[in-house]
Write a structure and sequence with these properties.
231 residues; Spore Coat Polysaccharide Biosynthesis Protein SpsA, Chain A; nine-stranded mixed beta sheet; globular
């Protein structure tokens, strides 16, 4: 069992507000959203996998494994998290980080702060928060929760925040003074806004506390879950 977490990038959404297709492959500042996310993630985790349905060949240029949802029916982000948990366990990793493929400004200390929040609260899950909202799919999960999550999905559960509250969840609040580090691109207007953010020196995780500084920690659902959904 390795202490280093791995990451699953949730790229299985239908992207209706973007006109369909893969949001992960939309261009931002001359690079795909996926590349922005990978650049933020790779220094923080031991390995990265994509969660996406359909032909995996479209992601071949990035050389990453691609996991289809383990259960049929387009069950939403929890299905992608489950795929990530199963993959993490097969690698011998105890923890898996989940992030949407349309969040190009992820903090450089995301994993460290989520791990600290979870450790302080003594719970198996920690999610990110900013601007008074939680981001339930930006989270660090114990891979050992896979069986419980699969049972919940088979029983009809689809709400990320409701399921995590039942398991025990903490949050780590991130500063958004220089722009929300969890800004996600759901529409063409969001993409234009992200271009503007990218052009400013404060774009991304500016203002995040260093990994060795204890983050604000709360147990339970501390804030209103973000209305944005990427899957």
């Amino acid at each position: 069992m390795t202490a280093e977490p791995v990451a699953v990038v949730l790229a299985g959404g239908l992207a209706r507000r973007m006109g369909g297709g893969d949001k992960a492959l939309r261009m931002l500042g001359g690079r795909s959203l996926l590349v922005h996310v990978l650049d933020r993630l790779r220094p923080q985790v031991g390995a990265v996998v994509l969660s996406a349905n359909g032909d995996p060949a479209r992601f071949a240029p990035w050389g990453l494994p691609v996991l289809a949802d383990p259960l049929p029916g387009n069950l939403g982000p929890l299905a992608g998290v489950l795929a990530g948990m199963r993959w993490a366990a097969a690698l011998g990793a105890a923890d898996v980080l989940s992030v949407p493929a349309d969040t190009p400004f992820l903090p450089a200390d995301l994993v460290a702060r989520l791990a600290a929040a979870r450790r302080v609260a003594g719970v198996p899950i920690a999610c990110a928060a900013s601007l008074g909202r939680t981001h339930p799919v930006v989270a660090l999960w114990a891979a050992a929760l896979a069986d419980a999550l699969e049972a919940a999905l088979r029983g009809g559960e689809r709400r990320v925040d409701r399921w995590t509250a039942g398991q025990g969840v903490a949050s780590a609040a991130f500063d958004a003074a220089g722009g929300d580090p969890f800004f996600n691109v759901n529409s063409p207007g969001d993409l234009a806004e992200a271009e503007a953010l990218l052009a400013t020196p404060a774009a991304g995780p500016a203002g995040c506390t260093p990994p060795d500084r204890p983050p604000p920690v709360r147990s339970g659902p501390p804030a209103t879950p973000s209305a944005r959904r990427s899957r």
